[in-house]
Write a structure and sequence with these properties.
Pnp Oxidase, Chain A, elongated, alpha+beta
Length: 197
């Protein structure tokens, strides 16, 4: 059950839940569904990995030329949903989206495995191709190009931060009597509300 006296900062509860998920979820505890809206007004959702959580929000990285990148650059608002099945919990987040700094993007890109950095150059994310050989050929080409020395971050590859204005914690309860606690951003502070399940 969620505490009767909620923490003043929802990120405190989120970090606690994430620590528990990291020890109980078999795969990708940082995975979240990301919802965006396209130019046609239609919603789109896909799974991403959240790479950092700080006082300013939830950070993930992508190719800005991808469908999600284009959505977020055109309409910088998003929703995230973490679902930890083993814990029977979920956290829902809504907020505005901001690009991370070049320094943050460079630092994260440099921390990635070499093959992932080559993949960022090789993949024309979200665009069609005829045969897998096309992708394999591009991987080989960029592998040769960056065989020695540092691999720079592609100019179209960076990160987004979802700055939450709403965070909802949901915990499964018996007979569908679930706990739901919502935090709403109110200036620099948060206000809370409990919702019927």
């Amino acid at each position: 059950m969620l505490s009767r006296e909620p923490a003043a900062d929802p990120l405190e509860t989120f970090r606690q839940w994430m620590e528990e998920a990291e020890s109980s979820e078999p795969n990708d505890p940082t995975a979240a569904a990301l919802g965006t809206v396209g130019e046609d007004g239609m919603p789109a959702v896909r799974m991403i990995l959240v790479k950092a959580v700080d006082a300013k929000g939830f950070v993930f990285y992508t190719n800005f030329e991808s469908r999600k990148g284009q959505h977020l650059l055109a309409q910088p608002k998003a929703a995230l949903l973490f679902h930890w099945k083993s814990l029977r919990r979920q956290v829902r987040i809504e907020g505005e989206v901001h690009r991370v700094s070049d320094g943050e993007a460079d630092a994260y890109f440099d921390s990635r495995a070499r093959d992932s950095r080559i993949g960022a150059w090789a993949s024309q994310q979200s665009r069609p191709y005829k045969e897998k050989f096309e992708l394999e050929k591009r991987i080989a080409e960029f592998g040769l190009k960056y065989a020695l020395g540092a691999i720079p971050r592609p100019p179209y590859w960076s990160g987004f931060r979802v700055a939450p204005r709403l965070i909802e914690f949901w915990k499964d309860g018996a007979f569908r009597l679930h706990d739901r606690l919502v935090y709403y951003r109110d200036g620099e502070a948060w206000r809370t509300e409990r919702l019927y399940p």
